């Protein structure tokens, strides 16, 4: 089952334009639809997701009820997707220079959608044993799916060329 627009609760900040908010919603739905593919073996997505946007120069957030995306760097034309130190040098999910601010924004949305799926759906999936740690193996698996499918062809990685993270499967290593 594909994730549909009717499953979205919209919360647009007063200083975010409708066009900016709709861009974030479109990106979030693209991420969720990608993750509904059978190859990822995730549980069926049901219920609603809250997609909130703001422009305050603060962090974005993803949790079990939805995501909050701060678009301040998007407005400023930011193209660097900075990731957490624990995996910033990974070639799949590490820090990168994006081709456009839109691609960077998609990277932020994908990161937060990965947290949403991690906390909302992983407890009842094959990855239930690794879902608790915020940037642990469960998160890395989901974020890796999204980065490979939607983002990585549009970025130049700024980290090293190898990654020993357990979210890369043997099949994916063989294809590389």
Task: Tell me the major beta sheet.
Answer: 4 strands, mixed
Radius of gyration, in Å, reads: 15 Å
User: What oligomerization state is this entry in?
Assistant: single chain
The CATH class assignment is Alpha Beta
Total number of distinct structural domains: 1
Q: How many helices in DSSP terms?
A: 5
Find the count of extended strands (DSSP E, 2+ residues): 7
CATH topology-level fold name: Collagenase (Catalytic Domain)
Principal-axis shape: globular
Q: What low-confidence regions span 5 or more consecutive residues with pLDDT below 50?
A: 160-176
Tell me, rounded to a whole number, the average pLDDT.
85
Structural class designation: alpha/beta
Tell me which CATH architecture applies here: 3-Layer(aba) Sandwich
What share of the residues lie within helices? 25-40%
Q: What is the first-to-last residue Cα distance?
A: 30 Å
Q: What is the helix/strand order? A: EHEEEHEEHHEH
Strand content: 15-25%
What is the spatial order of strands in the main beta sheet?
1-2-4-3
